[in-house]
């Protein structure tokens, strides 16, 4: 298999696994996953707001997920690890799912969008952007954007620093897509710098010795400026 085809197939497989886990673990507060190849197999790390639901009673659900990943999605020897999301407000996927759920329950799109935006910023995020697209109020589809703070849209920081989450709200008029981007608090931007002030050097002290008779007496040290005036 060519290198290009290998990368494409890996990307397609990861997208299918992401879609499957997002659907199956919606009640658990699914917050994304990470896949890494190891000598023993494939390590699949699932981030969730409620890890207990992911594991299931007696580990039944996590065992079923392992079988599905191996048989239906071609993941070699999957080993699932579940990690709890400590701060859901800094997880873009969880915020996107909450926004989609609010829209499905009948929330007005402006109220739902500003509510998510305010919650993220009050948690200490550096910036947040919420995009809602679809048939919001009428028969025509349109896009509404809510932004606050600092968000990178291009370059490497947009892929490494900015958290992104996607979700879909299913309503009677049609589907509404939501996207949440956020920069967590404490993130280091490449264009951020700190000026360190140089400490001011104190003038060096010079000690002089004067002789009184046969005895020598040390006079107190004087700054350089004082010595210049005496001369």
Overall description:
This protein has 7 helices and 9 strands; from the N terminus they run αββααβααββαββββα. With 231 residues, the chain is α+β, with helices and mostly antiparallel strands. The protein folds into 2 domains: 82 residues, 2-Layer Sandwich (GMP Synthetase, Chain A, domain 3), CATH 3.30.300.20; 96 residues, Ribosomal protein S3, C-terminal domain (Ribosomal protein S3 C-terminal domain), CATH 3.30.1140. It has a 4-stranded antiparallel beta sheet. A hairpin with a 4-residue loop joins strand 6 and strand 7. It starts with a helix and ends with a helix.
List the SSEs and their pairings.
Elements: H1 3-24, E1 30-38, E2 41-48, H2 51-55, H3 60-72, E3 78-84, H4 92-104, H5 109-122, E4 127-134, E5 142-149, H6 157-160, E6 163-170, E7 175-183, E8 206-212, E9 215-222, H7 224-230
Parallel strand pairs: 2-3
Antiparallel strand pairs: 1-2, 4-5, 4-7, 6-7, 8-9
Helix pairs in contact: 4-5
